[in-house]
Amino acid sequence: MQSHLPDILKTTPGEPGLVSVIVVNWNGIDYLPECVDSLEQQSYGRLELLAVDNGSTDGSLAWLRANCGGKWRLLELPENLGFAGGVNAGIRASQGEFVALLNNDAVADRDWIARLVEGMSFAEAGMAASKICFYERRQVIDKAAHLLYPDGLNRGRGAGETDRGQFDGEEEALFPDGCAALYRRRMLDDIGLFDEQFFAYGDDADLGLRAHWRGWKCRYVPAARVYHRHSQSLGKYSPQKAFLVERNRFWVAVKLFPLPALLLSPWFTLVRFFWHAASIARRRGLAGGVAREHSPGGLLRALVRAYLSGARGLGSILRKRREVFLHRRITSREFRSLMRKYRISAKELAFRD
User: Fold this and answer.
1) Lowest-confidence region among 9-13, 30-34, 175-179, 192-196
2) Is 255 part of a structural domain of the chain?
3) Is this model's pTM higher than 0.85 or not?
4) Which of 45, 65, 135, 216 is most enclosed, with most CB atoms within 10 A?
5) Are 350 and 287 in contact (CB under 8 A)?
6) CA gap 211, 259 in Å, rounded
7) pLDDT, position 314
């Protein structure tokens, strides 16, 4: 099957054993130095380090120019292209057999890259997920790969749980969080890059689910540990984040769900909204936090904006859906089996903070 990818990817298959590490920065001056230092201290010997600045205005670009010299390549974008656009710029400029992503508000263990590469020893593994814990509370899990709700919303597995070793077994997973992930370039050549229409949030879910449609697998590698300052870019309870998350989960469902699952997804959204309403009443969960720190009206406006924006982008999403289903390598039944295996409940989505 023909790949609909930029020629630059087809002509750069990747230098064997080389890992291209991409850090996308947008106004990260307060935490960027520690992220950069953790990557410069990696035990894995064959690294290509790339920093992509997304039009920062806080002085972090000047810091990158001054401190990321010989070991780094710096790409300066004139405006904020979002996480997806920034990552894609880095991938197109990179040369490695593997591409690693690390958020600028995260810090990696010294063996992070080495462990992820070991986890990709299976030929069908196109992605590897890290164990991500909170920076401030390092024994609390942020994400141990991802789970999926039947309307397209996703949440980190184990989010908010104390790390007692319950996720210490290496195993298959649904997809990695873009905060700290490793991708095989050959997989990206096969499925395409991040969808820049998403801008931010849900773009890693879109990429991971597209990969499954093409028969690729994801490995969860718990020995690859990262510590994350959660939601530093927009804020944990930002209405803008709520807008992007809700719009993009709608696009994930329309673009990637088999038709029976897509037709059922509005029902699951209504169930989820019921539990979100309960979480707002109890001032718990993410929806409760947005309503508490801003207002219930602010949350409602974000949701209305999300569906209006989602509807405006629907034509493009439907065209991409046709491409996904035209070139799929697994059946709809196999995909629905993945959805069941890695499902999260509406109640857990609503009340987990």
Assistant:
1) 9-13
2) yes
3) yes
4) 216
5) yes
6) 18
7) 98
